[in-house]
Write a structure and sequence with these properties.
With 473 residues, this protein is an alpha/beta fold. It folds into two domains: 201 residues, Immunoglobulins (Immunoglobulin-like, Sandwich), CATH 2.60.40; 254 residues, Class I glutamine amidotransferase (GATase) domain (Rossmann fold). The strands form seven sheets. Strands 14-15-13-17-18-25-24-23-20-21 form a ten-stranded mixed sheet. The protein has a five-stranded antiparallel sheet with strand order 1-11-10-7-8, with no helix packed on it. A three-stranded mixed sheet has the order 9-6-12, with no helix packed on it. The relative contact order is 0.13. The N terminus is likely disordered.
Length: 473
């Protein structure tokens, strides 16, 4: 099994010695196809099951039928026994925690390089000509049925601008699996990439803060330390200095004000993560800069803000203010308490099931958390989704997300903002990113934030509608 940095035209143009990217129907060009007369080549044996070509209207061999194209021509019909399928479980980069709503598909065209920076990507638009596709469920599991058969089939694992492509051998009329553990017992194949050598990662900017170790969530989910650089570096995680730590190898990073000093500087990034600074610090966030962040969201940016970074929304432009009724007290509780998971919408219900499946919630409806703040009295249901809440106090909403531009129809929205009153964990920020972050397994609270970070990475859609895999095309 070979991991692909990207799929070249040459690699996809020939699979098992077959020219697969012509639009001509299988077996109609005067040369012998692997499916002609039941013949097979290496990697296309039926493993004892009966197989043959698809019916004429799929294979292009009958009058008036549509020709197959590319990898479509390598699908077989299993007349008895199981279908030709790929089954697996997808994990975060560290290979420890299964993930929900990850797209898995077989592309029928070369994968172009991903363009980084704020962009209005619609659901399914980043999936390249899927022959067949699926999304993972609350256990991280997926099944692809009726997949092409060959020694070399490209398989893509993707959510937003996270993308890993591997090459697999698919045997006909059986269930094919590729999950494999490394020496530490973590998933080594069916996972998101750890670095740019393994695939694509979003271009992220993270602002450090003294009151929340948010940057440390990233190396602990498996992102390679070499991807953490200062803003002029080539890593996928650019560290800006707030009042927290600095990136390893730098005594003082570029100030976070350089990050939000224009819409253009923000728009270099797919995602912006803002760590709690222990106070609003509006002296570093002018009304003009708050407008720049709103404009970044509107053109497809993603913002993950914790606690006191609520100021971008509460004190920002009127449309951002409108996503919630804001509290007047901004402290945080020191001890643990039990909070509710909002399961009233499809993704919220899946959030609860996912947490229960990995042992973070006892019942899929509640979970214990600590260092939870008081910023939001109540989200605005018409424009925001509430994920975690309590009815035991005035400040009810603890985690919310909203699509932007605020107030437009879902099909016209491009970006997503998040405010989390849930700190990553108790304690202060690490002084050097990522070397002092440690490598402990994620706590239940941190697993919840992993789910929500991946949701922020995913395509912008109406949260009242369950996610669907991209259709074949």
């Amino acid at each position: 099994m070979r991991v692909l940095r990207w799929l070249t035209v040459a690699a996809l143009a020939t699979v098992g010695g077959l020219g697969i990217f012509g639009t001509q129907g299988c077996g109609t060009d005067g040369t012998e196809s692997v499916f002609d007369g039941g013949a097979s080549s290496s990697g296309n044996s039926s493993s004892g099951a009966s197989s043959g070509i698809f019916p004429p209207d799929d294979s292009g061999t009958g009058e008036g039928s549509a020709p197959c194209r590319g990898l479509e021509c390598l699908r077989v019909s299993c007349t008895s026994g199981p279908k030709t399928s790929i089954k697996g479980r997808i994990f975060e980069p560290a290979g420890k925690i299964p993930l929900y709503n990850i797209i898995v598909y077989i592309p029928n065209a070369p994968l172009p390089a991903i363009t980084h920076g704020a962009s209005c990507d619609k659901c399914g638009s980043l999936a390249v000509s899927p022959v067949v596709s699926a999304i993972t469920d609350e256990k991280g599991d997926f099944v692809l049925d009726d997949v092409p058969v060959s020694d070399k089939i490209p398989l893509v694992i993707q959510v937003g601008k996270w993308r890993r492509a591997i090459e697999v051998k698919v045997e006909a009329c059986k269930e094919n699996t590729y999950n494999k553990k490394d020496a530490s017992g973590n998933e080594d194949v069916m996972r998101l990439p750890r670095n740019q050598d393994e695939g694509e990662l979003p271009q992220m900017a993270v602002s450090t803060g003294s009151a929340d170790p948010l940057p440390c969530l990233l190396p602990r989910i498996g992102i390679d330390p070499k991807e953490f650089t200062n803003p002029t570096g080539t890593g996928r995680v650019h560290v800006f200095h707030g009042n927290g730590g600095n990136v390893a190898g730098a005594s003082n990073n570029e100030s976070n004000t350089a990050l939000w000093n224009s819409t253009a500087s923000l728009s270099k990034y797919d995602m912006v993560l803002l760590s709690c600074e222990g106070a609003e610090h509006n002296e570093t966030k002018s009304p003009a800069q708050m407008g720049f962040l709103r404009d970044y969201l509107n053109v497809g940016g993603r913002v993950f803000a914790t606690h006191y970074h609520y100021t971008w929304f509460k004190n920002g432009p009127a449309d951002l203010q409108s996503v919630a009724t804001w509290g007047s007290t901004a402290g945080a509780r020191n001890g643990a308490a039990t909070f509710n998971l909002d399961t009233s919408f499809p993704k919220g219900a899946s959030f609860g099931k996912w947490l229960q499946n990995n042992g973070s919630s006892p019942d899929g409806a509640t979970m214990s958390m600590t260092e939870v703040a008081y910023s939001i009295t109540q989200h605005t249901a018409a424009s925001a989704s509430q994920w975690v809440y309590t009815n035991a106090e005035q400040y009810k909403t603890k985690y919310m997300s909203f699509n932007t531009p605020v107030g437009l129809k879902p099909e016209d929205q491009c970006g997503k903002g998040v405010l989390s009153d849930i700190h990553v964990s108790a304690g202060t920020n690490a002084t050097t990113i990522p070397t002092t972050c440690g490598n402990a397994d994620l706590t239940p609270q941190e697993k919840a934030l992993l789910f929500l970070l991946m949701d922020l990475s995913s395509c912008v859609q109406d949260d009242k509608v369950a996610p669907k895999p991209p259709p074949p095309r």
